Amino acid sequence: MAFSDSVTTCLSPPVHYVICELGFEKKVTYDISNILSENGEVCWQAVTEHVCYLESDQSVDYIKSIRSLGPVCESVNLHFKSLTKEQFVIQYALWFRWTNYTELFLEVFDVLRYTQTTEVALGLMKLTSCLERALGDVYLLVGKDCPFLLRDLLASEQLAVVFGQAVMNVLRVFIGSPYGLNLRNVLWHGFASPQEIPAKYCAMLLFLTAGLGQLLQTYLLQTKCILVHRPYVIFVSLEELDVFPDLNHETLSIAEELVKLSSFVLKTMLPFWMAALTAFKQSRYADCVILLLPQLEVGLRLLFTTSNKCPNRLLTAEPSALYTTFDEMLAKHLDNEVVNQLPAVLEEPAMASEFLWDFLNHQEGPRIRDHLSHGEINLEAFPREIANQIVAFAITLLCRFSDESMFAFKEHMVIKPLMNCASCYRSQFHPISRLKKQVLKCMKSIHLWPELPTVPEEHGQMIKGLEGSAEASTLILMILEIISQLQRYMPQNCCSSDDPISSVLTERLLIELCDTHICTLYSPRPVLEILVVLRKISTQCHQVSEQVIASTELRYKQWMNKTLRSRQRHNYLRMLNSIKFLSPVLRLILVFITLELLNVHLFFKKNPFDYQQYLKFLKSVLRYTENLVTYTSPEKNKWDETMELTNKALTKIREISDRKLMLMQLAT
């Protein structure tokens, strides 16, 4: 990893030239009055005339445009430096309101006055994400389904309708196009060091954002439209993200020393790391994570390119190629189907990859980078809990990739707990993990049934129930047969011969099964398809349970208040009889799908069984649970039909279990 000391830039020569040199080639002074009127309005025609076009197809000539706009950007930067904060607020604050975050743009102005390179880069990252979000809100004035990618948003006809195509082309020179400066991407993906981002480009984007506000006001007045801002994403269930202990001042002080010594850190990026740790100490948690995520990416990219012997991919790709980003670095294979060597380099490959997938990629996870980089989060309310986890994870990587002289740091009393937490991390947001949580939550709900209020026993005997009937005997027999089939895949001594139903179909068993670790990395597509169906089954079972609880409590209250008609009373008693048998059936299904979850990886790895046929069976179980939701709903209350349906479903489960059991034996 000594290679990290020799890296002076992550920008390829052509990209470095475009960002750091091209806009400085024209040595002319541009008068600010050419693009800014006396009353403070942006003269867009004077700006757009600097965008050049190719003769061949009239598309933007980004090289000539950047060269031509360079002096304009410098003029804007000098203009802003000449203003006091009060003057800037008076002249421009109004025109940032359309972004729904005026304070951010005033903050960027403060940064530009002092030209601190790290803070300029941070300000540019925040500005571009906020601008993207605001442009998405404008897009929705005209169109639907706002594009996810900034380049598609800027190239859309909808924004051209509002602002004009020439104006949008100016923006694309700075952000959104891989052929332009592409400032957003080179920063958010960790390619640019602080000193490689000219402050004048940040100033120009600040200026353009104000100009867009002026154009938008004209459009809104003409069309009588009202700009509506989409609500921010709010992180929920923060306790699920609680992996590492709370970081204290001592831990952060050690982290600052590790940053200076660890081979995980490119020396050119050191200011970003130090600024991130400072931001955390100052309770600027969004700033901390915005600074740190690109550095985690570039550090892992260094490992990726070194371990896979492709050092050229440490640099920014040319417009015709793709960046090496988190998605590819976490993949099982490279694009040429060669096995990715990065997991082997990581001491705890599953831990590191599962953590990153959880926090960045999984759809049900926080997807921190996506939400931050697309401006979907209220930066002022960013939770400390998430920042704490990202910083702690970063510290573990700093420790892992440091030489033996750093042993004392690794064994330090405040660092060792972090390393221990990292080594035993298990995914929280992979579909496998979510299914485990679902079945346990559903089982807790079903376990509430015996505590539900019920009518006195003498009233329950008014109608002949299922107990003792041939139908009841058939149901119990089938449940017992299925339990017997599944029992060989359960922990030993979990079944009592006296009462196998009560001893097997328990919350304790499910907890034990769900505690079994399953590697979530690189799940094959058939497994993921099966997981979708299993989760739907679990969801339906939970809804049935909640409906039973609600209906039972309501009917009992009506019974006691004597407000039920005769037919309703009879139906209520049938429901009470039915749920005695419905409970073990639902618990059986939960145990069944949990065992399927545990066996599915091994099963498809070793057995040639046609998974489409198996998927068809699971979908038949899903249909049963969906029908069960309908029959047990307050609107239907079809309890006789519920038991008929249950009988058919158990027959199907028993048949497929017989067949699949033989195949599973072959697999094991």
TrEMBL record:
PANTHER family: ENDOPLASMIC RETICULUM MEMBRANE-ASSOCIATED RNA DEGRADATION PROTEIN (PTHR31701:SF2)
Key words, A-Z: Membrane, Transmembrane, Transmembrane helix
Regions crossing the membrane: 585-604
Cited InterPro entries: DUF4209, ERMARD
Protein name: EMARD protein
Pfam families on file: DUF4209
Domain DUF4209: 131-211
Domain of life from the UniProt record: Eukaryota
Organism of derivation: Oceanodroma tethys
Gene transcribed to yield this protein: Ermard
